[in-house]
Give the backbone structure.
Amino acid sequence: MLEAILVMALGAVVLGAALGYAAVRFRVEGDPLVEKIDAILPQTQCGQCGFPGCKPYAEAIAKGEAEINQCPPGGDEGIHKLADLLGREFKSLSAEHGIEKPKSVAVIDEQACIGCTLCIQACPVDAIVGAAKQMHTVVAQQCTGCELCLPPCPVNCITMEPIAESVENWKWKYPVFKITPAQKAAV
Amino acid sequence: MEVPRVQDHSSAKGGGVSALQRLFKFHGGVKPAYNKEASTGLPIAVAPTPTQLVIPLHQSIGGMPRPLVSAGEHVLKGQRIGGADGNVSSAVHASTSGKVLAVEMRLMPHTSGLSAMCVILEPDGRDEWIPRQPFDYRNATPTETRDYLRDAGVVGLGGAVFPSYLKLNPGKQGKLDTLVLNGAECEPFITCDDLLMRERAEATLKGAVIMREILGAGQVLIGIEDNKPEAIAAMEIAARAANAAAGDSSIRVVSVPTRYPAGGAKQLIRVLTGIEVPHGKRSTDYGVQCFNVGTAYAIYEAIALGQPLISRIVTIAGNVRRARNYEVPFGTPMRDLVTLCDPLPDSDRVIMGGPMMGLLMPADSVPVVKATNCVLIGSKALFPAPPPEMPCIRCGECAKVCPADLLPFEMYWFSRAKIFGKAQEYNLFDCIECGCCAYVCPSHIPLVDYYRFAKSEIWARELEKESADVARERYEFRLLREEREKQEKAAKLAAKTAAGREKAAAALAEAEKPATTPEEDAKKALIAAALERARAQQAQARPENTDNLTPEQQAEVAAIEARRAEIREMAKPHVRQSD
């Protein structure tokens, strides 16, 4: 009887020590769930979700404080991915946070720009270059299309232009078989 | 899978040129109707220069070349009009001398029907060359040679248009075992390589010798499908001469069995050397590099003659009365070539490439580019519309014929369902889009269309993910920078306040300190006298309406004075502090 208790106690001590060591040795820095959610979010940093960036929104989702359908740039596809990851029900994009738009980049009308630097301060990814009383311009490759530079511009010289389809970014379309009346009749 | 086979070509007696060569077999493949005879009857003709050339700047894999000319400029034949941009890019040249009319967006020879930057050239009819000089590659460093070939615009002419200078790199070990020259030309209708080998075998061989020296390759194997006996004979004669000149027998012409797609680079390497290049590896990792025969000829022209790549041999075939091969300057509209060959009236489409892998052109006005090995004219009778697509019956025929040893039906299901990750797990990106699977499919499923769709979706997503990662990094850096700036500002402010206090303290100490010089003493005495005078004046200037006051009024004045004194007392420390 005593032996049995001792053996069990010894086992508990050994396993407890192993677990304790593992908890220290293989400690996970940060919340892996937040990282996973953040990887799905489009990183536009536009704040349309009501949080000051994609990471805070990811944190809020992980804590269960935010819905998964608040990200317009991610669109329905992003919501599907989040639903899959979190095992939640798919919800269509919530209208109060905005609508899904085609991917665009900001373009500054360089004739009208007065060089006030307000857009530079607003850009979350530092994609606008320029200096006070100097012309500003958008580095199109780095622009996420968040539209945050539009409201501060005092002369409304920034417009959002959808990214045009070119030979380089053209995609093969999903094969669609056209059913003609004759074939319909044959089938 | 290995089927050892002793090659018994009838003219195998010539000094090791086509010596007994053990051949291997690649998996799958099909035997479509070849239809090559129509365009091999006549020799290569030079296509007439059109009235206007539309030369796209982007004619190879990689970065879009920068335009080097502008409207109104006069250019010479072979003058560079587009400079290579980035690590993977290749230059573009004027196909003839003339005037640049514009640099603008024009319809590209691309299925999308989209436009891209082109140089519009009006030939002046003089066809005046730039000064041409052979390039001394023997006394140049490998980097110089590669830069030269990049600026000469030499790209793979088998169809992939990958910049050749990047492939002319022997890799880590510094030399290769085998240089494979691809003259298989397995796709139906196309005969441009066949005619090139028949008519320009010697020059092609010279190009191969140059490539071999650059690569340090031990042997050269020239693989030609056995349905081209004339090309094999011509290449054997040239190879014998080259071997005799070098005094060895390292160049060999090998006749390979005719089976589509024997001309795929990996398939030909497999047949000739038995090496199966695995997923994610390059053939150079196994000491083999493969080039098209047309590329070898272009390298000969670039290095030995100093001529950049400005034209190529194009087969015009299909629904025409006089199918033929033409030497076509880049930028020539396909329409002009079709007219030369007398198309039948029911022709309704133009395909760039062959019937298996070719791309449907958006219009016949698109120009011939470096990738154009064939202009195939189609009609409803020649290429009837496929029967309706039926459900996959899981027969496995597609897997039997896949030359890349993939499972096409699995990739099809996942591509169709848009489960791209799974499609990639089945090695979708090893698919060479040869079309064998769709060719044998009893349900007439356009399998390659699904693969192309899935591939471009995966590429787009990959790019999106990359740009999202960049955006995240930049955003995080911005947050970091803002935090740092805030701290710096606070530190600066603190430093400023501290400096101010020190200054005040110093001034106070100065005042308390006894005067050091008589001049300062005099000054101080003067100031003190002035202050004394002012005080006396202030004392004298007493308010005149305070003489005859009632006791109540006097009490009120006293209360006010007391309050003022109190306020002054209270204010003193604050004034000191804010100083």
Observations:
- The CA atoms of residues 533 and 539 of chain B lie 10 Å apart.
- Chain B has 15 helices and 19 strands.
- The longest strand of chain B covers residues 98-107.
